[in-house]
Design a protein that fits this description.
11-stranded antiparallel beta sheet; two-stranded antiparallel ribbon; alpha+beta; 30% helix; 239 residues
Length: 239
Amino acid sequence: MYMDKRLIAGILLAFLGVIGVQIHAQSLTDFLAECERKYGSDADLVNGEKYFYPYSRSEGDPFFDSKAQSSRIRVREKEFDGQILRYDIYNQQLVLDYQDIYGGTSSLVLRNEWVESFSYGSFVFKNMEGPEGEAAYFQVIADSTISCVYRWSKKYQLNLNSGVQNYYFTDPVKESFLVMDNHFIQFRNNRSFLKAFGKEQQKTLKIFMRQSKMKVNKSPDWQMRHLIEYCNSLPHEDS
């Protein structure tokens, strides 16, 4: 009988230990629910909205990448790994796919004002106040005194070449910016890129870009990152 009590006690402690691990390993949806309890009962403010895909009859899709990505996301100063995200660049919103309490897959539109940053495959995005003064997600190419970011979007257009009225999504469109002293400077080519710098810096950068055979509107991310690192290494030039 004594051995039975010890065995039961051991099983009970192990069970409680498993529960403790599950509680400690807080999921993103658990965290959002905790925030709801702490900050109020407005589910839209805290948890976002249930997501339903409204473009089933359209060509293409509104996403940065058609496939969902396992991502790291930072929400209200907490980071969560392994979250399945889709980045809707047409509506500028993040869709979180998660397992609900019934074991099925549900989707949620996260509140943009709560999301600070997220990874998407090899890309890193940051929630920033853009050139128009409105918050948006920007792909971070380089983050330093002189930074470089991209803003991605798609358009939703009527297909005029078809005999049937239907809509389609365009390919992703990229807008490129330098960020200096929190000021966004858009560039579309080498010439507009160089205009962001002083005269002496322009001369040095022009040589560097020519030697590197760079065209900033076509250069891959790694080459742009190398260019921005070089820009940050140049002596500061007063305007």
